[in-house]
């Protein structure tokens, strides 16, 4: 169920599309375990035919489940492209593939989504990372170390210079 535009509908007037596209249809093929798109892509698009081109403008929104690379906390990153634009040539060397009078927008959506994904997702910009454990200290200062230290044993050695 890819996002396809039938060119015959554009012969009369511009076309407005609103809806959701399942994440599986985007085929993002992410190999990063810190980024997991699980919810559908929400889109609102206006498609216009301009001479031998399609102009697609609108908004793309994709919530993504992420894990912070510093503190490993789970959070949701909102990928929002409020002014997404794509110009698709219908003629010439770089023309898009037309199948049954339809153009598939999915590869163009996928490309721009992949470019907008965070490389190193952070729960917040000032995230300090994992907390370092603090060593336990004796409660009383009267407790002294009675074991000989390694340095004390080395100080007992007598070295001759010849």
List keywords for this structure.
162 residues; mainly beta; five-stranded antiparallel beta sheet
Strand content: 35-45%
What structural class do helix, strand and pairing data support? mainly beta
Low-confidence stretches: none
| Elements, N to C (H/E) | EEHEEEEEEHH
Q: Counting H and I runs of at least 4 residues, what is the number of helices?
A: 3
Topology, number of strands = 8
Query: Which range best describes the helical content: under 10%, 10-25%, 25-40%, 40-55%, 55-70% or over 70%?
Result: 10-25%
Mean pLDDT: 86
Structure description:
This protein has 162 residues and is mainly beta. 13% of the residues lie in helices and 36% in strands. The protein has helices at 23-26, 106-116, 150-155, and strands at 4-6, 15-21, 35-37, 41-50, 53-67, 74-89, 98-99, 102-104. Strands 2, 3, 4, 5 and 6 form a 5-stranded antiparallel beta sheet that branches. It has a 3-stranded antiparallel beta sheet with strand order 1-8-7. Strand 7 (98-99) and strand 8 (102-104) form a beta hairpin.
A few lines on this structure:
This protein is mainly β and 162 residues long. It has a domain at 4-116.
Give the topology, please.
Blueprint: E1 4-6, E2 15-21, H1 23-26, E3 35-37, E4 41-50, E5 53-67, E6 74-89, E7 98-99, E8 102-104, H2 106-116, H3 150-155
């Amino acid at each position: 169920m890819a996002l396809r535009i039938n060119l015959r509908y554009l012969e009369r007037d511009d076309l407005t599309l609103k809806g959701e596209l399942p994440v599986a249809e985007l085929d993002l093929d992410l190999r990063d375990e810190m980024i997991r798109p699980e919810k559908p892509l929400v889109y609102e698009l206006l498609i216009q035919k301009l001479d031998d081109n399609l102009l697609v403008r609108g908004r793309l929104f994709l919530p993504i489940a992420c894990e912070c690379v510093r503190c490993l906390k789970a959070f949701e990153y909102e990928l929002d492209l409020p002014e997404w634009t794509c110009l698709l040539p219908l003629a010439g060397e770089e023309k898009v593939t037309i199948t049954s009078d339809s153009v598939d927008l999915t590869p163009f959506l996928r490309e721009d989504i992949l470019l907008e994904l965070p490389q190193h997702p952070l729960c917040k910009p000032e995230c300090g990372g994992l907390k370092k454990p603090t060593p336990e200290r004796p409660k009383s200062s009267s407790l002294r170390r009675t074991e000989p230290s390694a340095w004390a044993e080395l100080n007992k050695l007598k070295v001759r210079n010849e």
